[in-house]
Amino acid sequence: MIKPLLYTYLAMVIGVLIMDFRHLKQAAPINRWLSYGIIALGTGLWFYVTALNKTVFLSVWMSHIIQRLLPMP
What we know:
Number of helices: 3
Helix content: over 70%
Strand content: under 5%
Distance between the termini: 51 Å
Number of strands: 0
Radius of gyration: 18 Å
Shape: flat
Largest sheet: none
Order of helices and strands: HHH
């Protein structure tokens, strides 16, 4: 039941993105790149939440990086 809803949502998002890209071509370069970045971040987050079987929490990921950089007592 969830899969058809996800595909419907994805089709609607693609339609909105196509309309947005047409209008973004007329925007100033900095606004265009900021918009592209926000769209890419949102799309990546959506794929991360819906496609991965295992959720990786940001705080756990950051703690692994920090542990490598900081000396342990």
